[in-house]
Amino acid sequence: MALARAAGRAGAVAALALLWLLVCAPGDAGCHPLTVADLFDRVIRHSGRIHSLSTALYAELEKHFPHRDNELGRPARKCHTSGMLTPNGKEYAQKIPREELTHVILKLLQAWKEPLSHFNQNIEHHQELPDDSLSKAKQISNMVHELKTGVEKVTEKMQSMGIISNSLNGMASSEDTGLSISNEANMMSDSDFIHCFRRDSNKVQSYLKILKCRIMPENSC
Q: How many angstroms from the chain centroid is the CA of residue 113?
């Protein structure tokens, strides 16, 4: 219980730190104006930490709950986000409009918010799992919420500078996407769930890097 509380406090501190970096006003003591590149660097690093945590948690779940092949040979359950249209590969991600790529990133993050919260509640009942695994699950859930907030701040900054148009505001609500597929995610096994999340967290990080490079090609990436 103490560890859980400590993990919660650590997650809250990390979340507040990310928000401070994103919304700190230039006139505040010790604060410096953040460029678009600065903001991108922060959300990219944050997404990288999320992916690393999910990779570690997946390995731990596989260790405690070994995957069993389907006796009837049926294919494994698809990820609940498999039906979402996302760029297939770097080449295509570099071609679609910046606004659309930004929307895809936000849509993916939204699609995981509710399922991760549900997963975090359920995994606490697995008494055979070490406290460190439970802590990772909680951290991931908190960090995804803050990453979405961070990407929204970056989006607002790009719109205010005219880097992307405001047409993003007219796209389909990402809130609806997350709610409509959360039930399917809740039916997956824990290891399959984190496997799917790890896949999508890697997508998010890749898309963020590509979006940054498209906006700032001088980085030669």
A: 8
